[in-house]
Amino acid sequence: MEQYSVFGKPLPRIDAWEKVTGEARYLDDIFMPGMLYGKVLRSPHAHARIVRIDTQKAEALRGVRAVITHRDTPGVKFSFFPVFADKLPLCRDKVRYIGDEVAAVAAETAAIAEQALSLIEVEYDLLPAVTDLEEAMKPGAPLVHEDKEKNIAFEGHKSFGDIKKGFADSDYIFEDRYVTSKVAHCCMETHGCIASFDRLGKLTVMMPSQAPHTVRQEIARILDIPRSKVRIVVPAVGGGFGQRLVTDMKVPAAAILSRIARRPVKIVNTREDEFCTARTRYPYIVELKTGVRKDGRILARQARVLIDNGAYNDKGPATLNYAGECFAVLYNVPHVRYDGYGVYTNKQFGTAFRGFGNVQVTFATESQLDEIAEKLGMGPEEIRLKNANKPNELMSCGATVTSCGLVECIRETMKKSGWDEKRKMKTDLGNGWYRGIGMATMVHTGAGGRFYGYAATDTFTKISEDGCITVISPAPEIGQGGKMVVAQITAEVLGVDPSRITVINNDTDIIPYDLGAWGSRTSFVCGNAAKAAAESVKEEIFGAAAKMLQTTPGKLCARDEKIFIDEDPSKAVSFEEAAVYAVSNLGYPLSGKGRYTDPLAPQVGIDKKYGHHLPTFTFACHVVEVEVDSGTGEVKVVKVTAAQDTGRTINRHMAEGQIEGSILQGLGYAISEECVEDGGRMMNPTFADYKIQTAVDAPPYDVILIETDDPDGPFGAKGIGEPALVPLPAAVGNAVYHATGVRFKKLPLNQERVYFSLKKEKG
Amino acid sequence: MLRSMQPFNYLRPSTLSEALKLLGDHGREAKVLAGGTDLIVGMKEKGLSPRYVIDIKGIEGLDGIGYDPNEGLRIGTLATMSEVSASSCVREHYLFLAHAAGEVGSVQVRNRATIGGNLCNAAPSAETAPALLCLDAVLTVAGPKGERAVAIEEFFRGPGMTVLDGEILTGMLIPPVERKGIYIKHSPRNAMDIAVIGAAAAVTPKEGGWENVRIALGAVAPTPVRVHEAEELIRKKGQTKEAIEEAGRMAGETASPIFDVRASAEYRSEMVENLVIRALSELCDS
To answer: Which of A177, A426, A446, A575 gets the most CB atoms within 10 Å of its CB?
Structure first.
């Protein structure tokens, strides 16, 4: 008999039916009695002083119920980290990017609200804008935040080992500069909210969110009200990818409008609003210096990282720090130095995005590693295997890698893709076409992080009198399968079909405190808590079953909807019978509580014990095959072979879905997507001009799941939501290099860039 | 940023004369609606606000595709892109026109969008225009004074502008001349995309060479255009590698592409050259 009857199986998701039938209600499907429509007036200028705002005409428009400006807000500056607070909910003296919030209205219809916006008069005094990261660093550059001395918003420095010695001991030193682009999350559902104050002063906000408790704290902070007066309810969510972690200012705006109008207020982004204001991935410049021995061993690695922060801080400091964590861990490098700077510019600001800084830095490290290998006369696979992390290894940064499948990931992708033969094949296909194959690896967290001094959560599970199971878990469902992860783990413990399980996960007044879905932490943290809760309720139902079977709970097993005596499976009761028996014959209902705690978390806050922030690491290797058309610059990705260290796969379908989705999003980042900006204005805020990859563009995938059985994960599982995007851009760049001999150090490898580069270098 | 459609009067005539009368009455305040894939988007997102929308889908006889050996291929203005791309008449005689129609937008858009609408919207990148230019399509235009025939080369006047003057495009006729052709759409992805460049070429293969050499381009000038000089060159010099390369260069030089967020003018010019060479070379090999 297989070890597990439910865990790991490619079962259909418990929320599949409601999604494919349209039964699931997303924010835009929800209407509340008396609901008003809100709109936000945004700055048309990249940088300007606000001289005067006159809202009288808008207020006088029939159907307008509230108009607000900074005067109606508590004026508390906000950022994800309070120490970096720099953003007012509505601008007071200055606007700092095209899209900055200036005023907001609520009206009976969206059309009236729209019209009211056009009646608000704002007089601006234009200021010189700085829209280039390196220009912004120069002395005398216009200050984005006039109360600061310079445009450098934050710095981060890490040093492990002895970098000078590392370079001194190296036989070769490589120095390169890599530039990554600004890309948008492109969630299927645009962002929005319905805010509603009741008469007792309690605020309920319905909104798509991946971190409802965090948002609750943030809104309380911005509105200067107690957290207990804020409740976040999350409807079905159409994608997250990091974009729904930090509070967007339309939420406090809707809340204030609701308090004034005494009605619920809905504000939803148009797609253009979304592209221009809903935040992006941070563009990075990475100056990378690496020292290696002749035999390919990496001895020293130094990066100077510049982040184009945009107008406000948001997640900038966190991505800078996190990218450094991964930089210090991929390959066991004895001497590491990392210096990062976040720089203000008068542009739309960034936020978290799948890969979280790591993908930008990995583009640099994994591109350069291929150049190093070539110089040393080694194969890309050879240098990676030589330096690959191994299980239970101590890194120079102090982190210990626990489970680790990096070597297996490299070997399996090589085998499955036919790497050895394809590397030797002729790359010139004639008629200006070239073919190539490249690889890249990555490390990422498989369990969130301990940055906030807290990484725990609870879960409550009950079995009803009819044998149905309800799990109250904080695992967010943003399309990634958070609910099913909880259901499948619970079902494995209790030996039932997941269809018996309902997961309640969307209301901060109900669910336990949790940090949300980021850093691939849901499966690990919420999964462990769900497992513990299921084990706790299992003790209760085993108590009932033991009485029915006249045995002791310790001799029982649960599997296939039955509870039976392990030594004699013919002695069995159904799960449902046992639940009914508990209520009817024993006289009590069944419930359990489970907790995941991470005792290290309170000891290793963001500024302490660097190297211990990530509870476990996950690894991957991608092999990408391309055909390059030098006549047009087209990079055609013909195959992706991706191996991912999953710890233990919870649900094969969902794991493959996460990896395939990451690959397609990563391909867009690598070859076609880019927020094109001119003077701080986004020039392509539509899906016609912002080129995401479509289903027709998807190359064939081979996904390989490497199981390494993590010692701390639920049934050995690790998170996999983010990592599969991380190696893609570097793997594409390495494949294009193999095909054409031309190295791209700037993303994206779009047709025009590839065409002119090939023309210049190959004639 | 205004996202709400302005109110308008929706009119659905059942005869052509009724439609022309309405168009005459309302003049510039009216817009003709066929598939709506350009008009409705324009009204929702691009500030287009006609007071009258005249839906011609209720008029009989404006759809359908048929081939007559003497007359040629007739395509009704309301034939959808899906119908054109799947039509056995089109595929048998002018396969590359079917391919061009199959390149428009998405499946959903192709099921709605009409070939007449594609031409009347007069986008420089109109997907079917280069192929129809290569086929010497003759457009049938109905007006208050009766029907007239307009050669497709005369039809476009600028971005969004045509020769139509209170008139309605009712269909087109492609003369029954044997052709083989090719349409190359160049865009950053394989579906749901706008052509950065569209290049079409067609010829009538004859013993010892080509006749009726046609080269036409989309998205490189204010209207879809034919490149007569390059056609003339191939006619004179034949389908040699040198002539083809020279024709490509000529096409690249005559094109006056725009610079926008999709591509630079320089890139577009080079693509014209490369894709014309590619199109002609493929016709040589096929």
So the answer is: A446
